[in-house]
Write a structure and sequence with these properties.
Layout lengths: L2 H18 L12 H10 L1 H13 L12 H5 L3 H15 L12 H14 L3 H8 L3 H19 L9 H15 L4 E11 L18 E8 L5 E9 L4 H6 L2 H7 L9 E2 L6 E2 L2 E3 L10 E2 L11 H26 L9 H15 L4 H4 L7 E2 L6 E2 L12 E3 L9 H15 L12
Parallel strand pairs: 1-6, 6-7
Antiparallel strand pairs: 1-2, 1-10, 2-3, 4-5, 8-9
Helix pairs in contact: 5-6, 5-8, 6-8, 7-8, 8-13, 12-15
Amino acid sequence: MDDDAVLAAAAAIIIGVVACQPRPRPRRFWVRPSIKKGRQRYGASEFMKDLLLDVVDELNLEYRNDVGFIKFFRMKSTDFYILLRMIGPKIAKQNTSFREAIPASERLAVTLRFLATGDSYHSLMYLMKISKQTISSFMPEVCDAIVEALQGYIKMPQSGEEWESIAKQFEEKWNFPNCVGAIDGKHIALKAPVRSGSDFFNYKGYFSIVLLAVVDANYNFIYVNVGCQGKISDGGVFNNTFFKKALEENSLHFPPPRALPGRSSTTPFVIVADDAFPLSPNIMKAYSGSHDKGSKKMIFGYRLSRARRVSENAFGAITNSFRVFRSPMATKVTMAAVCLHNYLRKSSSRTVYNPVGIFDSESIDDGEIIPGFWRHDASSSQLRDFAGIPRRSTAVAQAIRDEFAEYFISPIGKLNFQNNK
């Protein structure tokens, strides 16, 4: 058989195979009829206008304080539109001859509602009259825009004076001098990424990413590292961060060491932590083992735990307000939630986002801890603590911890109720 005959036979086979393949079904419509008609009659923009009625029309007999814009988005409308002005140009799309683009306000509204509730895209589709395919396409863009616009709200102090300001607040609020932050880490459950193998499968038996953060005395995040694979040991997560490297190289611009009030030995500025972190000259954690009530080591552990509650409460506030933590999450969503936490803590929505009673409080008379109501929320269990890791510490770090412990039992540093803890 000559070459021409072979080519003709091959072409015939290819044509036959193509002819036998089923033709794709023509698309009947671009948008579901229920969604299209819903947008025409009662789209997301109209829905948001109705929510605002509960805010501005307080004389309306239908007014109820537990519904409306504030509860729906976890913020006031003024802060919503401030945020919209920040990110609107980044997330807006142009209309085409085929169909109108989803407005930037609706894209932001859907994203905030998703963060606030963790609802499925399918549920949001029927609530906001936007298809789940469209939601899944713009959600990452909006989260990226939120992080880019609000990254200035998560700011590491750049000078000794700024660290001094945080230390002053820790001393005034939590009676822990020379403290410039509380560090903590959490595992956040997520769906296994495609072709990730066991990279994100942690020792607790589920897929996760890690959120590592340093929190100031006012429950604001000043450093965040998110996205590390869950399979990395909790100690390894911290060891691979910029923060640990900068801490060891003394490049964080901490103020020079100074004596604790009423003491003579100079003590460096420190960050309080739990057993998942190493004891070092700039990281303080409790003494290991059990200790007698009222002993120096027991009192030190209580005072450190008291200051470290700011990180526990910051994580608790996020899980209480952003119910998306109840379901498997992604890095972008986590970072967007952290940025929004600091943004809302510093906005007019502060009391809306963190109402009275959400954080732990303390009795003035006996120091009894009154748990914040975030602790009673099931969603808080979605953030899992780092495991405690035993490590040997240097003699210098132990001496610094001993100096803090001596200060806490001294006449000038003690609290009246600490011996009962």
